[in-house]
Amino acid sequence: MTKPIHIIGGGMAGSEAAWQIATAGLPVILHEMRPNVETFAHQTQDFAELVCSNSFRSDDHEANAVGLLHWEMRAANSLIMEMGDEHALPAGSALAVDRDAFSAGVSKRILAHENITIERGEISEIPSDDWGQTIIATGPLTSQSLANSILENTDQASLAFFDAIAPIIHADSIDMSKAWMQSRYDKGDTEEERTAYLNCPMDEQQYNDFIDALLAAEKTEFKDWEKDTPYFDGCLPIEVMAERGRETLRWGPMKPVGLTNPHQPGIKAHAVVQLRRDNALGTLFNIVGFQTKMKYGEQTRVLRTIPGLEEAEFARLGGIHRNTFINSPLLLDDQMRLKSRPNIRFAGQITGVEGYVESAAMGLLAGRLAVAQAQGRDIETPRNTTAMGALITHITGGADAKTFQPMNVNFGLFPPVENIKGGRRNRKERYKAYTDRAKADWSDWLQQGA
Fold this sequence. Notes:
Blueprint: E1 5-8, H1 12-23, E2 28-32, E3 55-58, H2 65-75, H3 79-86, E4 88-89, E5 94-97, H4 99-112, E6 116-120, E7 134-136, H5 144-154, E8 159-165, E9 168-170, E10 180-181, H6 191-194, E11 197-202, H7 204-216, H8 238-243, E12 271-277, E13 284-287, H9 296-303, E14 314-316, E15 319-325, H10 328-331, E16 337-338, E17 341-346, H11 356-374, H12 387-398, H13 427-447
Parallel strand pairs: 1-2, 1-7, 2-6, 7-17
Antiparallel strand pairs: 3-5, 4-5, 8-15, 9-13, 9-14, 10-11, 11-12, 12-13, 16-17
Helix pairs in contact: 1-11, 2-11, 2-13, 3-4
EC number: 2.1.1.74
Keywords: Cytoplasm, FAD, Flavoprotein, Methyltransferase, NAD, NADP, Transferase, tRNA processing
Protein name: Methylenetetrahydrofolate--tRNA-(uracil-5-)-methyltransferase TrmFO
């Protein structure tokens, strides 16, 4: 009888790894500590629960690295992408999902698979070699005891950063006499997609008053052991962005470009706060890019100064948590195995990738590599010309271990395409060349039996 492959963590990466292994015909034991051990960010015991945004970001597979990653995962029969597509919400050119229906869908498929056994309870230390192959995919909320065990086994100083959660608002509490529905630049193939975002405009005085309130608001106090932890630049709290300069938010999540206010079509907004639908019913909206560490009372006070949100009712307020990841370029081999313990693989955000899709993608790769190892097959990881390959190359040696920080997938991780000019003017042609090459190389990797 084939020895089961153990997976610790039922988030995006662990769920995808379990699915890839199980559908290859091998037994899996998936360990999830919830609900026996709760985290402050999770609300359910479902697998692949989304605790921050409900967006998988751009779905453009011809001109965007994230969209290309979507394409590659779909080609590899990804459960995460299948459920994302099944529970998609209008979001312009992005892929957003109904968070509850999505995680419920993933859970239903995982629980129904005959090759997957679920064991609830905390794994407090790296398992012994008696377990055989193990994939650690505990993500940003790895329990402290397991994190300590990882540090003991790697003999490395901890690397961590803070990740923040954006608030969610009840749609019927938003004043639509001030707000309006429109995707930036009217992007999308359908009217529903072209009106996927809810927009709240600000004039210059309102914007400056908002910045003043934001800077003056009481913030979450960090414990002594957390105070030296840096933020990940791709998920900065709005107050941290505001501290970097009064115009920072206006050039970030509050940029007013590509939008026309139908209530005042002749007046250009100084800044715009966007909200995105958070569930299929359209009853909940999350504030795009508004991760925050303000205290709860301060959040309601400050966010209700936004035009259209004066009477906002919050389904969930924002929060902040400490995110832990390993120094993968130093610790992992090119098969995502711990160099000192080759029966142990890591997958997901704990490896230093950032984002839902990137985490699931590393789970997909870890699962397929584990299957090959269990079957006695030697397979190379995908080329770095693919989105998957670019990510795994980066975290297992492409990045400098001395300055390693979490990374989203982006075309800067890909080798240049020959005979394609650089510069902004040639960007569309260059990105198309990247994605065409990646699709061919990814398809080739899959066909070779990966």
